[in-house]
Amino acid sequence: RKEVEQDPGPFNVPEGATVAFNCTYSNSASQSFFWYRQDCRKEPKLLMSVYSSGNEDGRFTAQLNRASQYISLLIRDSKLSDSATYLCVVTQSSNDYKLSFGAGTTVTVRA
Amino acid sequence: GAVVSQHPSRVICKSGTSVKIECRSLDFQATTMFWYRQFPKQSLMLMATSNEGSKATYEQGVEKDKFLINHASLTLSTLTVTSAHPEDSSFYICSVRQGLSQPQHFGDGTRLSIL
């Protein structure tokens, strides 16, 4: 079983729509969770960290469910510029700096 | 502004050539840097952890003699792909982290193509 699994998509949505997707992780000892955004042929860029209580950053909302070992990302009022691959990233254990990456969920926002 | 600088961004060379990639931490001193590789449509895979002043820690399956890592200062780590072959063609990315549980910041990546 992969350490981090994501639905690859693609999620094709119109501008203004809401899109949400999940990511599951296998290591129950994972402590830190992040969503990164990766544009085609570019490096990943941090979108937001995910906190236990859930957190919001503008149009983006992240949730963490430790019991079911998944995190989610919701994008409201989608913009064309939101088109990208979203990577779910999880630390491998509580004392380790190593990150495990999902393969990414592709979102395409159309006009 | 950029936290990490990676150079070069693109390399195209013949099989058998050795290629050196540099990764610089711009905002803080980094005793640890990370090197990843990403093949098309796949997730980033950690290759090795670069430790300042000591040997790098390689992940299982990564040949340390092929991927030489040198972390000579607190702001610079280099990855040398020795005698590169077409199967080494990939996107190589370095990252730095400011502290435990902090997110990692990535360099721009180096797209390596071996002919």
Q: What do these coordinates show?
A:
- The complex is a heterodimer of chains A (111) and B (115).
- Chain A has 111 residues and is mainly beta.
- Chain A has strands spanning 4-6, 11-14, 19-25, 33-38, 44-50, 55-57, 60-65, 70-75, 84-91, 99-101, 105-110.
- In chain A, the strands form two sheets. In chain A, strands 2, 4, 5, 9, 10 and 11 form a six-stranded mixed beta sheet that branches. Chain A has a five-stranded antiparallel beta sheet with strand order 1-3-8-7-6, with no helix packed on it.
- Chain A is globular and about 40 Å long.
- The model of chain B has no long low-confidence stretch (mean pLDDT 91).
- In chain B, the strands form two sheets. In chain B, strands 2, 4, 5, 6, 9, 10 and 11 form a seven-stranded mixed beta sheet that branches.
- By secondary structure, chain B is mainly beta.
- Classes of the chains: A mainly beta (111), B mainly beta (115).
- Chain A binds chain B through residues 4, 31-32, 34, 41-46, 49, 87, 89, 91, 95, 97-99, 101-104, and chain B through 6, 32, 34, 41-46, 49, 91, 93, 97, 100-101, 103-109, 111.
Record field, number of beta strands of chain B: 11
Radius of gyration of chain A: 13 Å
The secondary structure category of chain B is mainly beta
Largest sheet of chain B: 7 strands, mixed
Tell the overall outline of chain B.
globular
Average pLDDT of chain A: 92
**Order of helix and strand elements from N to C terminus of chain B:** EEEEEEEEEEE
Radius of gyration of chain B: 13 Å
Overall mean pLDDT score of chain B? Answer: 91
Return the structural class of chain A: mainly beta
Unreliable runs of chain B:
none
Work out the strand percent of chain A.
Answer: over 45%
- Helix content percent band of chain A: under 10%
DSSP helical segment count of chain A = 0
Strand content of chain B: over 45%
Main sheet record of chain A: 6 strands, mixed
- Give the chain pair forming the largest contact, with residue counts: A-B, 22 and 23 residues
Assembly category: heterodimer
- From the spread of the alpha carbons, the general shape of chain A counts as globular
Number of strands of chain A: 11
